[in-house]
Write a structure and sequence with these properties.
With 359 residues, the protein is mostly helical. The chain has one domain. The chain is 69% helix and 0% strand. The protein has 18 helices and no strands. Helix 9 packs parallel to helix 11 and helix 17 packs antiparallel against helix 18. The radius of gyration is 20 Å and the shape is globular.
């Protein structure tokens, strides 16, 4: 297979990539000059906050703004049409997310409802093929029930989006996970010679990179709830679309690609349930925060401790792309890889002491 780069690479996206970098730099500079006070915005206060300075949580808004601009000014192609559908579906979480990132006053229940609504919109708007899941043991028959498949996809997208938001606590981690997932999808698009998805996914990757340059290692700008939720929903939708277009690939591969945010949200749900804590409460017992609090007293430098977490967890966020390229054609090996990830995550969690109590 020989796909020439000009068959799928749209150089037009580079203009918006540059604009995204300029906007990220500009917003970070204005926040450093305390411009947010002129707007009457409150400082961000949350139990899971670990950064020292007041930092804009607008990286996600800039990403969505430039992705929307890219779609609006591009020639109409199948990939652009798919991105339009995705962006239309994101409208509820865009409004809710930007309100939370600016004013920090949106209740968790409202955010959850917005995520569920996005999932419902996607099922209503997307008319392409979906991954075949009815052959999956145990849950396959449940999915055949009236509305079963829609409920499954809506809950799955919500879970991935929540998982991405949970890991958005240290510099670079959420962006690194998103880029790893997108890279795995890019690899699958290449292997299946799907030029439409190859071009679409590569464009999304390029528009995430400017944020990453400003977010890691110094944390000059954050994704915010809008960015974390939006990236989680986008990678979920792209995964559903891509695996639906290629039924020859086991749908378990999608589970492997999305394994980190899914594991994080499931583990956090059961951890809170066991401790009798409402699942929507924020806490400091997440794996990446435990690692931060493990590093912090040894380094005596909060900034360095924050920046060390993402590379220290590289085995987790690189796991899907590193394993998927080897096992994507072998369902048994995909199951084994999923099992190994869960074991690795559990071992890391147990080995790290909990230095701050959940509240």
């Amino acid at each position: 297979m020989n796909l020439h780069i000009m068959q799928w690479f749209d150089p037009f996206v580079l203009i918006f990539m540059g604009m995204a970098l300029v906007l990220n730099i500009g917003v970070a500079y204005l926040w450093h000059k305390k411009f947010y006070r002129n707007l009457g915005l409150k400082t961000y206060k949350a139990i899971q906050r670990i950064h020292l300075n007041e930092t804009p949580r607008l990286g996600g808004f800039i990403f969505i703004l430039l992705l929307t601009s890219f779609v609006a000014f591009s020639n109409i192609t199948e990939g652009i049409q798919l991105l339009k559908i995705i962006l239309i579906c994101l409208i509820p979480i865009i409004f809710i997310g930007i309100k939370e990132d600016l004013f920090h006053n949106v209740k968790p229940a409202i955010r959850l409802l917005a995520l569920l609504f996005v999932g419902w919109l996607f099922r209503a708007q997307f008319t392409g093929p979906l991954p075949v899941l009815t052959n999956i043991p145990f849950i396959g028959k449940l999915l055949l029930l009236q509305g079963g498949i829609s409920i499954f996809y809506i809950l799955s997208m919500t879970a991935v989006a929540n998982g991405m938001n949970l890991i958005d606590g240290v510099n670079g981690l959420c962006g690194a996970v998103a880029l790893s997932i997108l890279s795995a999808l890019l690899f699958l698009s290449y292997k299946t010679a799907d030029i439409t998805m190859l071009s679409l996914i590569f464009s999304v990757i390029l528009l995430v990179i400017p944020f990453m340059l400003m977010n890691y290692p110094y944390g000059w700008i954050f994704l915010g709830d809008l960015g974390a939720y939006a990236l989680g929903l986008i990678v979920s939708m792209l995964t559903i679309i891509l695996f639906g277009r290629h039924p020859e690939i086991s749908p378990w591969g999608a589970a492997l690609i999305l394994i980190y945010p899914v594991t994080e949200v499931i583990f956090s749900f059961f951890r809170r349930m066991v401790k009798g804590i409402p699942f929507y409460y924020s806490d400091t017992a997440h794996l990446h925060l435990k690692l931060f609090y493990f590093f912090k007293p040894q380094l005596h430098n909060k900034k360095i401790a924050n920046s060390l977490v993402t590379p220290a967890l590289a085995a987790l966020w690189l796991f899907p792309i590193l394993t998927f390229t080897w096992v994507y054609q072998k369902p048994l090996f995909i199951w084994i890889a999923i099992f190994l990830f869960v074991v690795l995550y559990g071992m890391l969690y147990m080995l790290l002491p909990t230095l701050k109590k959940v509240s």
